[in-house]
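Table S5 (text form). Sequence records supplied for joint modeling of the two-component complex.
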Amino acid sequence: MKGFWPVFKRDLFASFVTPAAWVMIVLFLLLQGVNFYYLVQHFVNQVDLAVDQGPIQWFFGETVLFYLPLLMLPPALTMRAFAEERRAGTIETLLTAPVSTPAIVIAKWSAAMVTYLAAWAPTLLYIIILRRAGPVDWNVVASSYLGVVLIGSAFLALGVLMSAMSKSQFVSLVLALSVTIGLFILGIGEFIFDRGLAHDLCSYISIWSQMSDFSKGLVDTRHLVFDLSLSALPLFVTVRVVDAWRWG
Amino acid sequence: MIVVENLCKRYGSVQAVRDVSFRVDPKEVVGFLGPNGAGKSTTLRIMAGFLGATSGRVRIDGHDIVEEPIAARACIGYMPENVPLYPEMRVREYLKFRAEIKAVPRSRRNDAIEQAMHDARITDHADKLIGQLSKGYRQRVGLADALVARPPVLILDEPTAGLDPNQIREVRDLVRSLAKQHTVLLSTHIMSEVESTCDRALVIHKGRLVGQGGLDELRMLRRAGSARFALRGDAAAVEKKLRSLPEVGKVRRPGAAAARAADVAVFDVTWKDAVEDTSAAMEKAVATLVGAGFGVREASPGKTSLEDVFALLTEQQGREDRPGNQDAPADQQGASS
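The corresponding structure-token record, covering 585 residues in total, follows.
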């Protein structure tokens, strides 16, 4: 892992010293804030609440305003990763430095992950606000955030891979968006197909049912395995792609 | 220090580098000379570990660039063509990142950065954003980056491209001063640059190493093959006089446009191949003409362009290749595919 730290620090630096990360985080929080506001508005008027149908459960997974940012933030965070280095030519100085390719790939993914977590961190305030209004199930909060982190990790890994596919940030962004949104739409197939192979497949990759499990406090190992392998596999392929540039 | 053996690189059907072998000894400054598109950058990129070779080996300080890539790359300070940099970083921040990535120990890092900035003469711009620097300063940042870890080998791809004459002189002086501690391989397409900075030159043309040797050999190749005279007097008589000189091969009159006054005739003289010291031949010609009573208005040696040298070298190469050797490159290609 020679060279992980400097690359990791530089990537974080590059996103926070330029407006890029700030703009994305502000847009993200704006959407989340609107989402939270409407949810609270909605629940204020409800008289009796079901146990697993509170604002927290709804915030994590029952509205499209949650999925929109979840699907769009990771591609926006990773689009620079390799595409910009290749466009600017700095990939040449990076790859001729005494660093290993896995270290570079993991450093870029980790930097995106930290930015992603920084974007989510202020949403913890919503929980604190809810806490003032009534009891909060901390298990649900923990498993929901676990879900957000795991799915984010997989999407960021896919985004890093897509960023290595093109010299243009825009093309990388579009590629990564089509992967995350495509995955989400395939998962929706769960509600379309009747029982059978198609239904099982779709429900296995469904981000929607995954998040709805996590938001009920259910941590299913199937989801864990799915997310972790969807993080590891793209990163592994990215390492091979970057090494393949040398032989192109 | 640097050993390159039978290097070949092919992009699809294009053979960019063909069977290049050479070695560079410690503390030597070697110029890699060739026209644009000759394969200089490709060769340097392979040596720096950015590209893989189709076949052949590169060893830097005993480390094979493919088998021990990290050890080999740690020995190299590489400055790519056009010096790619991160525009959002300040010079000092960038060098700090590069020093860290090149594993300069933390205790020596600040000193190493200051020293590199001092050597590359960028200290007074240390806190400027790289995106706001001019081409010349970007070039210096690239040099400082190559120097920061004090590697034994420096590989500089066109270090003076795009600089003004003052900056070019500075870079040349810097390279010369670096030679005391480093082995330097620099590429260029300017012949005088090699003459002013290098101990030795490698000449590459169309992916093939067509010549290598010390500077004297290079100067020989560079000897002016022709001269131009502008003379006042009877044109026919002058021409006759010029032709009578034993060193003169061909005499040509480039037309009236070249002459600035009506009574001045211009001649282009090509020296015979056997004449080695063309400066002496020119001196003699001028003396003879003056002695014969013609007014010498102008006498200038023809400039030998790099292209002429390549033509000469490739001609020689062709002559050497022809007897029975013609199959050799074809074999090489067959073996590498």
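Note: Residues 4-42+50-245 of chain A form one domain.
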